[in-house]
From TrEMBL:
Biological process terms in GO annotation: DNA integration
Organism expressing this protein natively: Thiomicrospira aerophila AL3
Superkingdom classification of source: Bacteria
A molecular-function term among this protein's GO annotations: nucleic acid binding
Entry-linked Pfam families: rve_3
Protein name: Integrase
Domain Integrase catalytic positions: 111-274
InterPro entries attached to this UniProt entry: Integrase_cat-core (IPR001584), RNaseH-like_sf (IPR012337), RNaseH_sf (IPR036397), Transpos_IS3 (IPR048020)
Length: 274
C-alpha cells in the first residue's frame, strides 16, 4: 500500500513532466484534489511541538499524551490540533504502557455529593511509605473537594492527633475554614482531641463507613496520583527530603497538571475563576 504522501508526490511529478491536468492525475493515483493542493505545516513548528513534548515527558515522567496535550492547550494556550500533536508524540515514541484494567463487580455506591464552592468540604487521608533505610513514614493528605486542590501533604514518622490538628490549622490560616471535613473513622480521627478541635471551630466531621473507600472517593483518587506520580518515583533518605519533594510536587499538581475531573485544567485555574 503506497502512502498518500507518495501518491501525491507521483501525481505532482506527472503533472509537471507530462503536462496532464491535476484532476486526471488525482484520479489515476487515487487522491483527492484537496490532498494534492494541501501545503504541509512548517517543519520548524513541528520541531517546537516535539521540544515541548520532550520537555514535559522528561519533567513529568508519568504524564501520558492526554496530560501533555491538556497542558499545552489549557495551560500554555497553544492552539495545535490534537491529531497533529499526537502524531508527533507517536513519532517520538513517548507512549506509556497502558496496564489493562481488571473488571471487578461492585455494588453501586451512593452518589457522592459535589460541592459548589471552595471550603465547603475538605477530604483527608493517610498514606504510608518508607525511607531508603527502611524506616516507615506517613503522609497526611488534605484536598478541597470543590476544585480537587491539594491543600497539604505533610510527611512524618507518625501522625498523632496533635500533629494532624497542627497541619489543619496551618492550612486554615492561609486558606480559610472549611464547613465540613470528610474522613474515615480511624483511631486518629475519632480521638476526642480532634473532635473537640472541630467543635471549637464549628467544623462538621463527616465519617465514612468502614470498608467503603468510595465514600471518600475524591481523596482516594488523589492518593492514587500521589502514589504513582510522586512517591513511586523517589527514594527518600530523610524526612526533610521527602517533605521538600512533596511540597515541590504539590505546587506542580495545583498549578500545572491538568485534572480531567474539573475540565482538564489545573486546580488553581478553577480557584481563580471562582
Amino acid at each position: 500500500m503506497v502512502k498518500p504522501s507518495l501518491r501525491k508526490e507521483m501525481a505532482q511529478n506527472v503533472v509537471a513532466q507530462m503536462g496532464v491536468s491535476i484532476r486526471f492525475a488525482c484520479e489515476v493515483f487515487g487522491i483527492s484534489q484537496s490532498c494534492y493542493r494541501h501545503q504541509a505545516k512548517l517543519a520548524n513548528e513541528n520541531a517546537v511541538i516535539a521540544d515541548w513534548l520532550l520537555c514535559l515527558t522528561t519533567a513529568h515522567k508519568g504524564w501520558g499524551f492526554g496530560l501533555c496535550f491538556d497542558h499545552l492547550r489549557n495551560v500554555k494556550k497553544f492552539e495545535w490540533n490534537h491529531k497533529r500533536v499526537y502524531r508527533i508524540y507517536r513519532e517520538l515514541e513517548l507512549n506509556l504502557r497502558i496496564k489493562p484494567k481488571r473488571r471487578i463487580k461492585r455494588d453501586k455506591p451512593d452518589a457522592l455529593s459535589v460541592p459548589t464552592a471552595i471550603n465547603q468540604v475538605w477530604s483527608m487521608d493517610f498514606m504510608s511509605d518508607s525511607l531508603q533505610d527502611g524506616r516507615s513514614i506517613r503522609t497526611f493528605n488534605v484536598i478541597d473537594d470543590y476544585n480537587r486542590e491539594a491543600l497539604c501533604i505533610d510527611v512524618d514518622f507518625s501522625m498523632p492527633s496533635q500533629r494532624v490538628i497542627r497541619s489543619l490549622e496551618q492550612v486554615v490560616e492561609w486558606r480559610g475554614k472549611p464547613a465540613a471535613i470528610r474522613y474515615y473513622d480511624g483511631p486518629v480521627y475519632v480521638s476526642q482531641v480532634l473532635i473537640n478541635w472541630a467543635n471549637k471551630n464549628q467544623i462538621t466531621l463527616m465519617y465514612i463507613q468502614p470498608g467503603k473507600p468510595t465514600q471518600n472517593a475524591y481523596v482516594e483518587r488523589f492518593n492514587r496520583t500521589v502514589r504513582h506520580k510522586w512517591l513511586a518515583l523517589h527514594l527518600f533518605e530523610t524526612i526533610e527530603q521527602a517533605q521538600y519533594l512533596a511540597t515541590d510536587w504539590l505546587w506542580t499538581y495545583n498549578n500545572e497538571r491538568p485534572n480531567s475531573a474539573i475540565g482538564r485544567v489545573p486546580p488553581r485555574y478553577l480557584l481563580d475563576a471562582a
